Amino acid sequence: MEQLVTSEFKLGIIAGGQLGKMLVLAASNWDVKTFVLDADGHCPASSCCTKFIKGNHLDFNDVYNFGKMVDMITFEIESVNIEALKKLKLEGKRISPDPDILEIIQDKGLQKQFYKQNKIPSSTFRLFNDKSEIEKALSSGILKFPFVQKLRKGGYDGKGVAVIKTENDLNMLLEGASVLEDLVDIEKEISIIAARNEKGEVKCFPIVEMEFNEKANLVEKLICPASLNDSLTNEAIDLATKILSSLNLVGILAVEMFIDRQNKIYINEVAPRTHNSGHHTIESVVTSQFEQQLRAIFNFSLGSTKLKLPAVMINLIGEVDHDGAVKYEGLTECMSIEGVKIHLYGKKETKPFRKMGHVTVLASTIDEAKEKAEIVKQKLKVKAWKNR
Length: 388
What we know:
Blueprint: E1 10-14, H1 18-28, E2 33-38, E3 51-54, H2 60-69, E4 72-75, H3 82-90, E5 94-95, H4 99-105, H5 108-117, E6 125-128, H6 131-139, E7 147-151, E8 161-164, E9 178-182, E10 186-196, E11 202-204, E12 208-213, E13 218-224, H7 230-247, E14 251-260, E15 265-271, H8 281-284, H9 289-297, E16 311-317, E17 324-329, H10 331-335, E18 340-344, E19 349-350, E20 355-362, H11 366-379, E21 381-384
Parallel strand pairs: 1-2, 1-4, 2-3, 4-5
Antiparallel strand pairs: 6-9, 7-8, 7-9, 10-11, 10-12, 10-14, 12-13, 13-16, 14-15, 16-20, 17-19, 17-21, 18-20
Helix pairs in contact: 1-9, 2-3, 3-4
């Protein structure tokens, strides 16, 4: 890969949402030509990549034909047509992460079985084929409340997840093949972004603490560094490293974890790509998660993950009852606050709880960053020109 910068090297990125856009921008610093595949002709990455290809990431022909155009394939989403990737791999195409790893991760049932086989702590689980099987297990006493239902495939940003605490919640049961997990008594939710190259070098970013929007079940705010003691910090880093090594993954992996009220760590789930919980790294860490993904898949030395400044990141999500052409309120006011870095993803349409951007707030202390982030949260709003 040493000829990378002076060649016409073409990196294929499957899916062109905000993660794809930020990966394209990182690649442009090294003069890497970026080809993006996405079904949406106006996706965020379409305006800044070298070449945009309209196509469905779940369609065999679209993925296969796209792969033939490029020198290497990587992803911003794990839900990709695996059979097309496997055919490309057999033909010698470089793909990172490997399709066999994606196949495990994109199925939450296979993920849970992988944790069990590798003695990685995760909540107790059962697999069900459909909603009727769940209802039968409840009526027979095999299954008891409370539990969390996760569809095995296709869930993201809180979609495909149902928290069932009592019989009154059964109307929220989802139809489809599912993983049912025991409900963990959560004290904190944390995430680690970790990277590994072909040489086996591993580096972990500082651990972040996540706060969730209960209505949308997606990350609303993250705090870096997380407030953990040294013992928990080291245990979490060791677990992330073990998962990377056990998978033999080349690339980047986001590892989401629960810490319960007895200070026990459970792996929640992983994503083999850059992640919402790592956006702050663009400004707050020496190497961003996007540059690190490129370093890992190109088998370069991994970059420093040293924290430059404490940071709080908040997601900019569409306001409730606002659906349509987007407008942002409070931008000018928030930009006048020192340490506030605003990222708008370029999505033309907003809808309730849709991720439209993020804001990273840097400060000399976490408390100061939290105070400024709260001001931004109150003032910066994502609305539609005409609400419902």
